[in-house]
């Protein structure tokens, strides 16, 4: 089979997306005839008809094979082209990674130290986000995401790194900790400090504290665990944060690991076409070596088998 060029694939993709040769021609800055010729050439290479169009008709329709090819390309082609554009614009190798602020602040420096031993010249660009990570990978803004959410999206395959527990933290001056089963009752009337709306750990905490029909209203909301913990240290209220945010010798706060709450899982995801890229594989292995064991509990049990990289 003759080698298929990216130009032919891109032209077909835009024709299918716009539903016309003219729309694709405008998008790609081609002539109408060039767009049509590209599609005809691709059909010759693939030995099959991809598009049905009548003479003079403004709209085209996809054949079953054309529809199958378009579905195969969408949205992967957009992501690949976006990444190529950014690489060419920057003229420097980079890896764009998104993750919650707490994971980067508390856990990732040791991972980066190992990663940069292998790729010292690569720029590591971090977006500290909890929400919309899957969409940022799908639209080409990120290459990798470390998330406490499982997306279930084949375009952003994920692999489970491990899990961790949450801890109740509150000012030491408040006295002895309550029994875990009494925490929702204990929390009544106390100022609750947590994360911004939509963040995974806020949702888990609110669900736990709202058991038995109770209502919990945050007094302070902020973007990351370092800010939440700082507010607790200043005596402004209590919170529920990752256990690895709290040191063994805390002078101003009391902490209690919450074994009654489900473990929080941490997933490693990437754009599917980057799964075998050396930098992606290296970062996954570095995350596993540095985090699983000392910080995260290893994956175990049914339901932990996530699409492998």
What labels describe this entry?
elongated, disordered C terminus, 40% helix, alpha/beta, 5-stranded mixed β-sheet, 3-stranded antiparallel β-sheet, 309 residues
Number of helices: 11
The overall average pLDDT, rounded, is: 87
What percent strand? 15-25%
What would you call the shape?
A: elongated
C-alpha end-to-end distance: 29 Å
- What is the N-to-C succession of helices and strands? HHHEEHHEHEHEEEHEHEHEEEH
Radius of gyration: 25 Å
| SS content category | alpha/beta
Strands in their spatial order, largest beta sheet: 4-3-5-12-6
Instruction: Tell me the number of strands.
Output: 12
Describe the protein's topology.
Elements: H1 6-18, H2 21-28, H3 32-46, E1 51-52, E2 61-62, H4 64-73, H5 76-90, E3 94-99, H6 101-118, E4 123-128, H7 133-138, E5 144-147, E6 158-164, E7 166-171, H8 183-187, E8 192-195, H9 200-209, E9 218-222, H10 225-233, E10 239-242, E11 253-257, E12 264-270, H11 278-291
Parallel strand pairs: 3-4, 3-5, 8-9
Antiparallel strand pairs: 1-2, 5-12, 6-12, 7-10, 7-11
Helix pairs in contact: 1-2, 1-3, 1-4, 2-3, 6-11
């Amino acid at each position: 089979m003759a080698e298929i060029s990216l130009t032919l694939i891109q032209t077909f993709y835009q024709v299918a997306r716009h539903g016309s040769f003219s729309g694709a021609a405008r998008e790609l800055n081609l002539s109408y005839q060039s767009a049509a010729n590209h599609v005809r050439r691709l059909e010759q290479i693939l030995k099959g008809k991809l598009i049905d169009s009548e003479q003079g008709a403004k709209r085209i329709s996809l054949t079953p094979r054309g529809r199958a090819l378009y579905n195969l390309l969408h949205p992967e082609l957009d992501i690949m082209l976006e990444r190529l554009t950014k690489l060419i614009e920057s003229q420097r190798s980079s890896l764009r990674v998104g993750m919650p602020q707490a994971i980067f602040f508390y856990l990732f420096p040791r991972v980066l130290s190992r990663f940069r031993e292998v790729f010292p010249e690569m720029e590591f660009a971090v977006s500290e986000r909890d929400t919309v990570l899957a969409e940022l990978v799908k639209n080409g803004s990120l290459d990798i995401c470390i998330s406490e959410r499982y997306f279930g999206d084949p375009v952003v395959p994920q692999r489970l790194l491990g899990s961790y527990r949450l801890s109740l933290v509150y000012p030491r001056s408040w006295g002895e900790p309550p029994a875990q089963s009494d925490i929702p009752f204990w929390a009544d009337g106390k100022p609750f400090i947590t994360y911004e709306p939509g963040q995974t750990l806020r949702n888990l905490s609110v669900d736990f504290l709202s058991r038995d029909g109770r209502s919990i209203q945050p007094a302070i909301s902020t973007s990351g665990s370092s800010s939440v913990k700082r507010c607790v240290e200043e005596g402004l209220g209590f919170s529920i944060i990752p256990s690895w945010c709290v040191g063994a010798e805390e002078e101003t706060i009391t902490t209690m690991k919450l074994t009654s709450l489900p473990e929080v899982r941490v997933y490693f995801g990437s754009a599917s076409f980057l799964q075998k890229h050396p930098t992606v594989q290296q970062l996954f292995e570095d995350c596993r070596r540095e985090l699983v064991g000392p910080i995260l509990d290893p994956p175990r049990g049914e339901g932990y088998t996530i699409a492998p990289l």
